[in-house]
């Protein structure tokens, strides 16, 4: 795939994460943050397209959604947390072209990435509010977001692995 196609695919995946993140927002009372389906797209990008795309789409797409949705104070932590979340998942899953089925390793990768996200937001919120007691209230909200993302992502990944959509994005 040439550089133009890489750039186009990256931009498309960033936009997809941003739109999914902004599409449905359930407010989290304690932080002023929100639960959203954006993680499902980060998981999908990580498993299907790999670390480079997951890092960029997860970080930039999620941070962009925060800025556009009025949560600008979360943009920098989100850029770091969501980008690394996607990268962790991709590196653990390390999908090869020969793998065309969803594997237990993929599910474990999502769980580990989700735990990173929960821990990352706990630390970020603790720093922002200058207390590591307050963020405890949002651990369950962040776990709910991660679980919801997995519930959405797993069937999507399963279905997309049965198509040649990922194959079309590979170098020929």
TrEMBL record:
One of its GO terms (cellular component) is membrane. InterPro entries: ECF_substrate-spec-like (IPR009825). The chain crosses the membrane at residues 6-28, 40-65, 102-123, 143-161. The keyword Transmembrane applies. Keywords: Membrane, Transmembrane, Transmembrane helix. It holds the Pfam family ECF-ribofla_trS. This is Uncharacterized membrane protein.
């Amino acid at each position: 795939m040439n550089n133009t196609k890489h750039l186009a695919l990256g931009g498309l995946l960033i936009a997809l994460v941003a739109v999914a993140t902004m599409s449905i927002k359930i407010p989290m009372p304690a932080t002023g943050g929100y639960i959203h389906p954006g993680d499902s797209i980060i998981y999908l990008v990580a498993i299907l397209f790999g670390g480079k795309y997951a890092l960029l789409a997860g970080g930039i797409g999620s941070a962009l959604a925060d800025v556009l949705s009025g949560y600008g104070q979360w943009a920098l932590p989100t850029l770091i947390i969501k980008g690394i979340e996607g990268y962790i998942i991709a590196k653990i899953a390390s999908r090869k072209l020969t793998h065309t089925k969803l594997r237990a390793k993929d599910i474990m990768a999502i769980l580990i990435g989700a735990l990173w996200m929960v821990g990352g937001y706990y630390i970020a919120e603790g720093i922002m509010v200058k207390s590591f007691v307050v963020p405890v209230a949002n651990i369950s909200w962040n776990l709910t977001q991660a679980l919801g993302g997995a519930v959405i992502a797993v069937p999507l990944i399963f279905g997309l692995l049965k198509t040649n959509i990922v194959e079309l994005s590979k170098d020929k």
